[in-house]
Amino acid sequence: MQEKFRDPAGFEATLTDACWAHITARHPVMEPFRESVAEAIRQPDGIHLGKRDPARRIYRKRYAHVPDVGDSLDLLVFVDGVDGYVATAYFRALSLRGLGDLIWPSE
Amino acid sequence: MQEFKFEQVDYSYDRRGDVLDISFGPPASAIALQVEDWLAIQVRINPPRLQGVTIVGSRKIFEKINRYAEKELLDRMRRLGGVKMSISYDDGSDTLAYRWEEDGFPVPREGTPTIFEPLSKGGGGVWPATAEEKSLDNVYVEKALPSKEIVGLKILEFTKCGPAALEGIFGAIIDTIFETTAEYDENVHLITDALVQSFDWQKAAALAT
User: Fold this and answer.
1) In this predicted complex, what is the ipTM?
2) pTM for this one?
């Protein structure tokens, strides 16, 4: 099974069960947050391109509180900018260096 | 103190998404400390400890590591069997110390003289220093004598400077591997070598191809 989500820029991302299984196997904290991943794509705070790989789209959404995980966290969702495949997702507490170019919202 | 055994490293690679997850022990709930947009360190929530590393786009990354290792490292590298890293914090001096260990003994063996040198960006003291350069002000590498092999790392005033120092160290290592034009002194290169030689990059690269 796979789900498709359209971002505010009109790009369509695809989350497959296989990918979700991989994400949750390696990041068990993500288990209850499949819908949050969808929300981060549909209604992100920002969409960035990867700095080293501009073909990668990175969706960022801020959560003031994530139950059983922590406060003031960013959910990052990494999507292939060509075929829309959701590669991985995790909660970020701190960023040492910024994401790549912001492509949405446009300045 | 957290003991960090490299031999406990486990890998999982999602070929379709090109995502490599490296974990130190079984997967556990963790949140990310993002070093670069393609590199995240996963920190276990409870108890807090290093859980693993996530690399997005690892095929391209390991192509670069392979080239770097083949061209610049192989002649200096030797595999260290049973390497461990111990991390300790001294409340009195507010110092965080990393020490490499081999076969259950500190490297170097007890009685071997060591010296401490600042870990700094090269360039010869241009003033004023940038924030990135200043982040390394309280970081010192410990070297064995006479080999000058790096055996440890200390961060002074850790309560005040620790996060910036860790950012500086990771940034220097990342720049050394991937930004060959970045200027760092010999100690940064030696630290990068020590980490890269402790990491089974051939296995990781094989996973990513």
Assistant:
1) 0.94
2) 0.66
